[in-house]
Design a protein that fits this description.
Blueprint: H1 5-15, E1 21-26, E2 29-34, E3 37-43, E4 46-50, E5 64-65, E6 74-77, H2 82-95
Antiparallel strand pairs: 1-2, 2-3, 3-4, 4-6, 5-6
């Protein structure tokens, strides 16, 4: 089951308002960018967050899962919890590097 347009718009709406938020379709699913930094992976209407030490405390009670075959385990974010979602973005945005530009 692919992610619906309504769901990806909802995800972006949960963090819009205080940051530059956009999404990009990738391999049939979506990557959500905040200030041009890849923050969330959205697959099958589920929001995944890369497991990083900076999130261990905040996401300690979160479920974990694999967004696609061959991927490492990620945290599953409860996107309906606006306070948690904002906190995760506040932690990740400063430590996530901008993607490197590819040479043509």
């Amino acid at each position: 089951m692919a992610t619906s347009t309504d769901f990806i718009e909802y995800v972006c709406g949960q963090i819009r308002g205080f940051l530059a938020v956009r999404y990009k379709k990738m391999f049939g699913e979506y990557m959500v960018y905040v200030n041009d930094k890849p923050i969330f992976l959205v697959c099958d209407n589920t929001v995944y967050v890369k497991k990083l030490a900076a999130l261990d405390t905040v996401m300690a009670d979160a479920e974990c899962g694999v967004p696609y075959n061959g991927a490492k385990e990620h945290y599953i974010l409860d996107i309906d919890n606006a306070e948690l979602t904002q906190r995760v973005v506040e932690i990740l945005e400063p430590i996530t590097p901008l993607p490197k530009k590819r040479a043509k």
